[in-house]
């Protein structure tokens, strides 16, 4: 069974939360913070989530859990995605090569910004990893000095 609703099908907040592994409160919070567009609503005011919404939630979760991005960084990444989506949607309407080139420059800048965010995160992670590896080396040296035993488990 696919994780996404079928074309034209919408999920209420409880099922959307279950499928994404997030809580209903988190979905409402992401909406409040502008990470997720306000979903469509049923007559009774119940939120309805589309397959596109679930894809976006998956991307948000990946950036938060896997990459450790803050909500502000996630917002910047999503903004760049939206710029590229808008350009892609308008691409065929622009016959003029100069207009297309200008749009490619905008898309390139948005992607460059995403790379810079990711590079900054990776630099911080590398620095932390180096610090922890240095600490491990000190522990191993002390153990060797005091007990004569070398490192038993490598990380």
Task: Note down, in words, how this protein is organized.
- With 155 residues, the protein is mainly alpha-helical.
- The protein folds into 2 domains: 1-66, Orthogonal Bundle (Multidrug-efflux Transporter Regulator, Chain: A, Domain 2); 68-155.
- The protein has 5 helices and 3 strands.
- It has helices at 13-20, 24-32, 51-66, 71-90, 97-147; strands spanning 11-12, 40-41, 47-49.
- The chain has a 3-stranded antiparallel β-sheet.
- A hairpin with a 5-residue loop joins strand 2 and strand 3 (47-49).
- Helix 4 (71-90) runs antiparallel to helix 5.
- The chain starts with 10 loop residues before the first strand and ends in an 8-residue tail after the last helix.
- The mean pLDDT is 90.
Question: Gist?
Answer:
The protein has 155 residues and is mostly helical. 67% of the residues lie in helices and 5% in strands.
Q: How are the elements arranged and paired?
A:
Elements: E1 11-12, H1 13-20, H2 24-32, E2 40-41, E3 47-49, H3 51-66, H4 71-90, H5 97-147
Antiparallel strand pairs: 1-3, 2-3
């Amino acid at each position: 069974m696919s994780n996404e609703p079928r074309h034209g099908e919408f999920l209420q907040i409880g099922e959307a939360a279950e499928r994404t592994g997030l809580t209903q409160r988190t979905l409402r919070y992401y909406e409040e913070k502008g990470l997720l567009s306000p979903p469509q609503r049923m007559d009774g005011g119940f939120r309805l989530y589309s397959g596109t919404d679930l894809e976006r939630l998956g991307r948000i979760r990946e950036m938060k859990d896997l990459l450790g991005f803050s909500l502000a960084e996630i917002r910047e990444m999503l903004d760049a995605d939206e710029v590229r989506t808008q350009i892609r949607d308008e691409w065929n309407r622009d016959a003029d090569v100069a207009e297309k080139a200008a749009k490619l420059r905008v898309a390139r800048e948005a992607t460059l910004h995403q790379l810079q965010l990711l590079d900054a995160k990776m630099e911080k992670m590398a620095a932390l990893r180096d610090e922890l590896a240095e600490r491990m080396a000190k522990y191993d040296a002390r153990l060797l000095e005091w007990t004569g035993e070398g490192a038993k488990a490598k990380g």
